[in-house]
Design goal:
The complex is a heterodimer of chains A (271) and B (403).
Chain A: H1 3-13, E1 18-24, H2 30-42, E2 48-51, H3 62-73, H4 78-91, E3 97-101, H5 103-109, H6 111-121, E4 125-128, H7 139-145, E5 149-150, E6 153-154, H8 160-169, E7 174-177, H9 190-203, E8 208-211, H10 217-224, E9 229-232, H11 234-245, H12 250-269
Helix pairs in contact in A: 2-4, 2-12, 3-11, 4-6, 10-12, 11-12
Chain B: H1 4-7, E1 16-17, E2 20-24, H2 27-44, H3 47-61, E3 67-69, H4 71-77, E4 81-86, H5 96-110, E5 114-119, H6 123-135, E6 138-144, H7 145-150, H8 152-160, E7 164-168, H9 175-188, E8 193-195, H10 206-214, H11 216-229, E9 235-239, H12 244-250, E10 260-268, H13 279-282, E11 284-288, E12 290-295, H14 320-328, E13 332-337, H15 338-352, H16 358-372, E14 379-384, H17 392-398
Parallel strand pairs in B: 4-14, 5-6, 5-8, 6-7, 9-10, 9-14, 10-13
Antiparallel strand pairs in B: 1-2, 2-12, 3-4, 11-12
The chains are: A alpha/beta (271), B alpha/beta (403).
Bound molecules: pyridoxal-5'-phosphate.
Chain lengths: 271, 403
């Protein structure tokens, strides 16, 4: 059983929802990524989505665009990102790690080489924003053979038929994008999300994570009431950017990010 | 070589040209692409839609555009006879309008009140703003901040036409970044907005659709060649940015295997310098902007900056059908440097009294080289994709003159 699946099962037994933070690897320094991952876990995160920086992040708003630019300024490559995961795994063998990013860096590494390296580094899932299931026919079995989950997005515009197709192809969890827009968009409509998530859960046993527009304890807990996982990205990335602009140490940056996670965790667990 | 008749039917139902093309976009856009694919599949075979398109091309754009025998230039070059397909004479001054007319008609059929576009040289932006004005659609054009400076004249034209021009400061501040930003806008406003992509790239069905709308160029050129010379041309030459004017000229000739095809990429300061925009000549396959195609990228899959004196060719990717035609060998892809293109610009202006766009000047410069290797009985059709008025600022700047 995949680490993601068993993790969700355990959470379920404990009556808890997954808190899933996103950070971009190499932002703002390659050396800060692994300490940040550990702090996220210590502050109460369940699964980590680690962003692979890309030069043309078409589905991202300004916050993650700038994170990619900061990471690429010192040349963070997919190989570097995998090395971060391997280092993280030296002391943490329980927290699932999902790589999130765009297809091209993976395409250039080559799919078999990537699958092998990702598995040996301890990656549990891969979410490629610009790889819909229709184009994933060759990739998915390859990931599967290395016990890597392929996580797909669902959007407010996704039809019922497509929802079915995506849930059939995905594993680990499905990622529901709560708003039409790029990452960092504002205003998530909690009632609308509740309806959509329920409709998705009708179609699949996979856990449903909800991302986009979650910025604090209140939005996190409102989503936790209706979904299996709460995915948070731009607020963390903004905190990392602020730390960099203030020249904060890695420890201080970790503390800043941990504070955000702790608030969300507390709000989600308060029932 | 593969079966040409079969190749002419590509893409397949999923938008693939061999391994290229496809739909590599985030989920939010998939339904919009499904809807567009289905609508276009109906309209492609709908006589009423095609009649409306043809009528607009005739009476609004001014088609057919002439096929002009550049006699004086031919004499000067010495070799094959060179004919120019005069897309520069179209309303708005380039081939781009063929496509915007078609896509705007689709937007109208879908009932979308708002259109967006990306633009490099500004020709596609102007063509989009023009059809938006005519149909009363709200229009926003994304343009790299560097191109906003290079193509100031076109920026003002768009504004006069009522479009909002959004300078894009991200990344390399050129066409690819404008396209990223247009995609982001589309994701955010997908219900109200039709994205008019300006070249034969992007996710399916765009490469096919843009090709089909521009194929009027090749259909006319084929007929005009037969009428004027009694035979098909021996070679076709067109510049390749994203590849819409080239595929528009090439496609109706795909099955005529006696007709050689040359796509001319921007060689910038020279391929060896890395300062160019020639993914087919010097790049490798990857995935960007919704399709798999040749790209300019580094060893880690990051897209790298491009350089060309012509903003319309300054793009790190290329339409997927060109990638396919390169691999099958049906078309050849070559490059021309900034300096060679500038020389061709000056030459055509002086010898024929036709001022070509800097993009088109790349095709002209290659045609000149090619003609010299051919005999006087042979003919070449060069796609004169646009006129050079928009580039006068750039040329004057190179000449040290402020206009
Ligand atoms: C006159 C002209 N020719 C060619 C191009 C390049 O585009 P494509 O390769 O799609 O024809 C442009 C783009 O702006 C243009 O304005």
């Amino acid at each position: 059983m995949s680490r993601i699946k068993s993790y969700f099962e355990n959470l379920n037994k404990a009556g808890k929802k997954a808190l899933i933070p996103y950070i971009t690897a190499g932002d703002s320094y390659l050396e800060s990524t692994v300490p940040l991952m550990h702090s996220l876990v210590d502050a109460g995160s369940d699964i980590i989505e680690l962003g692979v920086p890309f030069s043309d992040p078409m589905a991202d708003g300004p916050a993650i665009q700038l994170a990619c630019e900061r990471a690429l300024e010192h040349g963070t490559s997919l190989t570097d990102v995998l090395a971060c995961v391997a280092k993280f795994r030296e002391t943490n063998t329980t927290t699932p790690v999902v790589l999130m990013g765009y297809l091209n860096p993976v395409e250039i590494m080559g799919y078999p080489a990537f699958a092998e390296k990702a598995a040996s580094s301890g990656v549990d899932g891969v979410l490629l924003v610009d790889l819909p299931p229709e184009e994933a026919a060759d990739v998915k079995p390859l990931f599967e053979s290395h016990s890597i989950d392929t996580i797909f997005l669902l959007a407010p515009t996704t039809s019922e038929n497509r929802t079915k197709l995506i849930c059939e192809h995905g594993s680990g969890y499905v990622y529901y994008v709560s708003v039409k827009g790029v990452t960092g968009s504002s205003a998530l409509d909690a009632d609308e999300v509740a309806k959509k998530v329920a409709a998705i859960q009708d179609q699949t046993d996979l856990p449903v994570g909800v991302g986009f527009g979650i910025k604090d304890g209140a939005t996190a807990s409102s989503v936790a009431k209706v979904a299996d996982g709460v995915i948070v990205g731009s607020v963390l990335v903004n905190a990392i950017a602020e730390s960099a602009s203030q020249n904060l140490s890695v420890e201080d940056t970790c503390q800043k990010v941990s504070a955000i996670i702790r608030e969300m965790r507390a709000a989600m667990d308060q029932e | 070589m593969t079966d040409l008749a079969q190749d002419a039917q590509l893409p397949d139902e999923n938008g693939h040209f061999g391994v290229y093309g496809g739909r590599f976009v985030s989920e939010t856009l998939m339904s919009a692409l499904d809807e567009l694919r289905d609508l276009y599949a109906r309209m492609k075979n709908d006589p009423a839609f095609q009649a409306e398109f043809d009528r607009d091309l005739a009476h609004y754009v001014g088609r057919p555009s002439p096929l002009y025998f550049a006699e004086r230039w031919t004499k000067e070059v010495g070799g094959a006879q060179i004919f120019l397909k005069r897309e520069d004479l179209n309303h708005t001054g380039a081939h781009k309008v063929n496509n915007t007319i078609g896509q705007a008609l689709l937007a109208k059929h879908m009932g979308k009140p708002r259109v967006i576009a990306e633009t490099g040289a500004g020709q596609h932006g102007v063509a989009t703003a023009t059809v938006a004005a005519r149909l009363g659609l709200e229009c926003k054009v994304f343009m790299g901040a560097e191109d906003v400076q290079r193509q100031a004249l076109n920026v003002y034209r768009m504004k006069l036409l009522g479009a909002e021009v959004m300078p894009v400061e991200a990344g390399t501040r050129t066409l690819k970044d404008a396209m990223n930003e247009a995609m982001r806008d589309w994701v955010t406003n997908v219900d109200s907005t039709f994205y008019i992509i300006g070249t034969a790239a992007g996710p399916h069905p765009y490469p096919m659709m843009v090709r089909d709308f521009n194929s009027v160029i090749g259909r006319e050129a084929r007929r005009q060649s037969l009428e004027q010379t009694g035979k098909l041309p021996d070679a076709l030459v067109a510049c390749v940015g994203g590849g819409s004017n080239a595929i528009g000229l090439f496609h109706p000739f795909l099955e005529d295997d006696s007709v050689a095809m040359y796509g001319v990429e921007a060689g910038g300061l020279g391929l060896e310098t890395g300062q160019h925009a020639a993914p087919l000549s010097a790049g490798k396959p990857g995935v960007l902007h919704g399709n798999r195609t040749y790209l300019m990228e580094d060893e880690n899959g990051q897209i790298i900056g491009t350089h060309s004196v012509s903003a319309g060719l300054d793009y790190p990717g290329v339409g997927p059908e060109h990638s396919y035609l390169k691999d099958t060998g049906r078309a050849s892809y070559v490059s021309i440097t900034d300096d060679e293109a500038l020389a061709a610009f000056r030459k055509l202006t002086r010898i024929e009294g036709i001022m070509p766009a800097l993009e088109s000047s790349h095709a002209l410069a290659y045609a000149e080289k090619l003609a010299k290797t051919m005999s006087p009985e042979q003919t070449i059709v060069v796609n004169l994709s646009g006129r050079g008025d928009k580039d006068i600022h750039t040329i004057a700047g190179i000449d040290g003159i402020t206009v």
